[in-house]
Structure formats: structure tokens, C-alpha cells
Amino acid sequence: MLETRKADTGTDADKNILLGRFSSEQLHWLDKARQFARAVSLDEVMASDRDNVFRRDMFEAACREGFGSLPFNPQYGGSGADYVSFCLINEEFGRRCLPVMSSLGVHVLCQEPINRFGTPEQKEKYLRGSSDGTYLAAFGLTEPNAGSDTAAIETTARLAGDHYVLNGTKTFITSGASADYFIVMAKLIGEASQDATESGAAKRGGNITAFIVEKDYPGFSIGQKFDMLGMRGYSTCEIVFSDCQVPSHNLLGQHGEGRKVALSSLAKGRVTIAAQAVGWAQGALDALLIELQRHYRDGDLTLANELNGMAVKLGDLAVKVEAARALIYQAARFVDAGESNVSVAGMAKTMATDTAMLVAGQAIDMLGSDGLKNELLLERIFRDAKAGQIYEGTNQIQRMLIARDLLK
Fold it and tell me: How many angstroms separate the Cα of 58 from the Cα of each of 233, 235, 273, 346, 397?
């Protein structure tokens, strides 16, 4: 068990702060997440990272607890909770580096466009199957030559009778090698693209169109699997479409509306990543405190004499973590109010991942070789935080988008 990590809210004062900030329903989901995380041993956390192996069994267990479709309507198997609750879960899972954290976030991100744009039949099949863990979902946007820029997408889709034919490659797809279905963005070509142009959708979205693609469709295959520096254990890979046949009823939204479909998910996805990142930052801060307190109790006078100098650094790190947390839950409350703000989501993602990187790096600096102890997970958090600064829109891109919004 992760007994070496700080597990609870701690003092009564801490608990009172939580009670003042979150509703009883939100704290209920936090408690469930904490209990789930406590049941995962340190050995399991380390093995997933070391062996780069996805834990499907743990994902299905998380879905049975209601985490798999937490912010969606119970009509299709969702838990009916709010987005703040989902962020609390992601923060807790990030704090403990749970092997299902990122896959669960992407899984919910993929359900968002189905919930908003899907047909009743698509919702019944994919939302219900996602809620109980029957299905694991992945998001197919990034390509070798197209990251944050949807206009640069090269994967194509052509309507041929009662199905679409997709060709192209998506890369760095979280859960890709283990997922059962994918939300895929492709550029519409052929006669159907002319229809989109006439309707005006292509002008607004560059003919990008969204599809639900199942792993067993003819022409679909898994490409290169990635052995990455951070965010390991999530089956990250390429997915390849070679005349992949997608039934016409798996069109998601309308022709040319793929950019709108993607953006409906990505802003929320960035808030989710921000919550995970503040969990990393808190986990790194917890580890630093544990080691400093242990040295002080053990009578390490050299370190004890240095604590006054470290106190300023420690206090500064705590301020940054709490500031990131406040911004994240502000962004989550915007989502719950139906006022999803792309700039605030970008701010939250940027600040939280930068903070996680800073706290993990400084904690290792302050502890020296002790900071590399496996049970502290500091070097794991350091590697994951670097990945967090890059995926779902790099922090440089986020800053550009924020600036563009300010200049409008």
C-alpha cells in the first residue's frame, strides 16, 4: 500500500477547509477516490511505470466504482456527478500516480462529444458501454504533422455507399493499443465534402469531420508502440487507417463539424489534465515534507540547521500548488455552469503542469539522492509532469491561445 505517502486531508483544520470549499456530494466522490487509491500498492504503481503495461483490470474496477462516466447523465449509465467531482478524483489519482489516471481522463473526454453530438443509438451503445468498463475509449486527433492545429490534419475520409473509407495515421494516442473505440478527426474528401462546403460547415471547420471508429473495423491497425520518458503504462501508440471502413451511422455530428466536436472535448480535457497535474504537485510536496520531517525527527542537525533556509522555498512551493488548485476548480466550476472558458482551461493546464514540474524538480534538488527513493515517486512525477507540459496542446500553444483571446 502507499503508506509512505500522505493519504488523508490531515488535520481537522484541513478538513474544515475542504468542507467549506466543496459540497458533501463532491467530498463523497473524493472519499471514494481516496479509498480506491489506497487499495493500489506502491509495487503496482512502480510496475506499471517500469514495465510500461496498461492495467485494464484496474480501469474496469474504477468504472465499477462509477468513475468511468462520472460527469454524465444516469440515463446512459453515467454517475450524474459534476465536473468538480471529476477533477477531485483526478487530483487524488495524480497525487498517487495511479496507473489508470490518464486513461480514465481520456476515456471521459471521448464520451463528451458523443454525449453532445451523438445519436440516441450511439449514446446507448458507447456511453453505456463506457460507463461499466465494457469499452475503453481513446481520442484520435494528433498526427505526425498535425498536433494542436486541426487545419493541418492529413487523415482523409471518403463516403462510399453505406460507409466511409479512412486513410491516414494518428500518433501518441493515449490508450491506443488497448482501446475499443476511438473518436477520430479526418478531412472529408469527395462528393460529401462538396455538401459540407455548400452548407457552410467546411468554411468554419476546414472539412474536418468526426467519426467513432471501433478497433475491429476492417483496415484499422495498431502501429508503433511508444516507450516514453513519462506517462508510461497507458498503451500510447500510433493508430493506422488503411482503407478503414467505418459504417455511415458512426459519423459523429455533421459533415465539416469535426473541429467543433473536438473543441467541445479539449477545453474540458485540459481542465482534467490540470487536476491530474496539481495532484502530481501535491504528491511531490507531500514527499518532500515526509523526508524533511523524518530527517528532523531523526536528529539530522545539519539538515535541521538548513531548514530555516529551506522554509522559504517550501512555503513558496506550497503557495504555487494552492494557487494552481484554486484556478483549476474555478475552471471546473465554469464547466459545471455551462460557461466552459477555453482561456481559463488553458491557464489552468499551463499553470498546473508548470507547477508540478517545478515542485518535483525542486523537491529532488532539496533532498539530493534521497529524492530518488522509489517510494517517494518524485522522479516518476518529474517525468510525468514534463509530458503534461506537452500533450493536449503544449503550454507554449496554450499561452498563444490565451494571448490571442486577450487581443480580440
Answer: 12, 14, 20, 30, 33
379 carries an active-site annotation: no
Domains of the chain: 12-131 (1.10.540.10), 137-256 (2.40.110.10), 265-407 (1.20.140.10)
* Catalytic residue of the set 91, 257, 291, 392: 392
Residue 3 is predicted with a pLDDT of 31
- Alpha carbon distance 239, 179 (integer Å): 11
- Separation of alpha carbons 338 and 23, rounded Å: 19
Q: Which of 214, 162, 163 is nearest to 184 (CA)?
A: 214
Q: Which phi and psi angles does 232 have, rounded to 5°?
A: -90, 160
Residue whose cell numbers read 517545478: 358
Instruction: Enter the DSSP assignment of 156.
Output: E
pLDDT single digits (tens) 230-257: 999 999 999 999 999 999 999 999 999 9
pTM (2 decimals)? 0.90
